[in-house]
Amino acid sequence: MSRVSPPLTEIPWRPPEQALSALEAAPWAAFLDSGGPDTEERARWSFLCLSPDETLNWQGESLCRNGVPVAGDVWTHLRDMSASARRPPKGEGIIPFTGGMIGMVSYEAGMALENVSSRHTSPAPRLIAASFTDVLAFDRREERCWWISQTGNPAPDLTRSTVRSTRPPLHFAPEQSQDVWTDAVRSIVDFIRAGDIFQANLTMRWIADCTDNFDELAAYRTLRQTSPAPFGAYLKTPDFSLLSASVERFISLSQDGLIETRPIKGTISLGHTAEETLRNSRLLAADEKERAENLMITDLMRNDIGRVSQIGSVRVPQLSKVEQFPHVLHLVSAIQGQLRPELDAIDLLQATLPPGSVTGAPKKRAMEIIDLLEASARGAYCGSLFCIGNDGAMDSSVIIRSMARAGDTLSVGAGGGITVLSNPMREYEEMLLKVAPILNAFEA
């Protein structure tokens, strides 16, 4: 049976933040939030997605599709959902995403792909996904807005959207003391000197209690105002929510099969003046430890992408370039490859998860050591938020600078790459630098 292409209906412009209230009554919804200067292509488009056709939830040993327990492999179900959502839209090419599948895959699901088990349990799902058929697309640069509905639903009334400015107070407590965490850094350095690994990404979490009437939407608004990010997102399900201000792209896949990943490794404070920022940028660019950290992850991602790329297509167009973000400077590299024609976005995810920038090298042994030293499961943190469009193209982010809500708790994670040159106190201070914007925004 032929499928009807969804129409693109332009509606009066409203800033994306004015449309967020449409999420309140939706049990499943997603907001792909491109923050920062809209002159940058990666910050140009935002998408609000409603009314999914299908949902998938992998929690512990239970796998449910559309709320009903199912048997089989989660990745097979994911591929089936992605394929069934394919409907080439009318006006294709105007808008980069007109509907498709959006989901979250946890760090532990990535561990399982590498045959590494964890001694921890997590309240977060291992994987959630939804095939969205109704999309509001916002072009922030041109200040234009479109409604796309594959089921003919009317556009939500954005004129009635309310904007609440109340900041929900939270008290985040670290799960490890400074001494315990810095001792873990020293343990990783010992593993490196013993020849087990070259690098490992050590993290920890801060936990806050939240009540049943916790205003999740107000919390997301606070997060996006204080930490605008090119890969921000709000993913809402009945039992779990992700509020993300991620600055890091994980893997993108074009309709033509071009793969790109942009790992971030190496961090320094932004500076209070333009002169300080320039000085810090030069310091970061010349830092031997930070450059080594970035280079090792670049090599790891070259290997991961090479698993599914055409022979000879993998290249590194950008290596350890200093880029500016809202609160810090980072070293960012870019690795590209061409996906083999018989493979798809699901194959690409399976070959590359969990993200190399949050594991270490060699990846499998680094994950084993991380699990030994960290105090809890990472859950959504250090996993990936992914979006696979009707055209088969994909974009995804590394889940960092994010808040995950499961039950009556919120968790925030931070960490950094540890090498043989690491100074434990400096690593601890860098971790605090990364997490401070979120903690400071919500501290009661």
UniProtKB/TrEMBL annotation:
Indicate the transmembrane segments per the record.
Answer: none
**What Gene Ontology molecular-function terms does this entry list?**
4-amino-4-deoxychorismate synthase activity
Spell out the Pfam families in the cross-references: Anth_synt_I_N, Chorismate_bind
Q: For this chain's UniProt record, which GO biological process terms are given?
A: L-tryptophan biosynthetic process
Q: Which named protein is this?
A: Para-aminobenzoate synthase
Anthranilate synthase component I N-terminal domain sequence ranges: 14-146
Organism field: Gluconobacter kanchanaburiensis NBRC 103587
InterPro entries, A to Z: ADC_synthase, Anth_synth_I-like, Anth_synth_I_N, Chorismate_C
Q: The Chorismate-utilising enzyme C-terminal domain covers which part of the protein?
A: 178-434
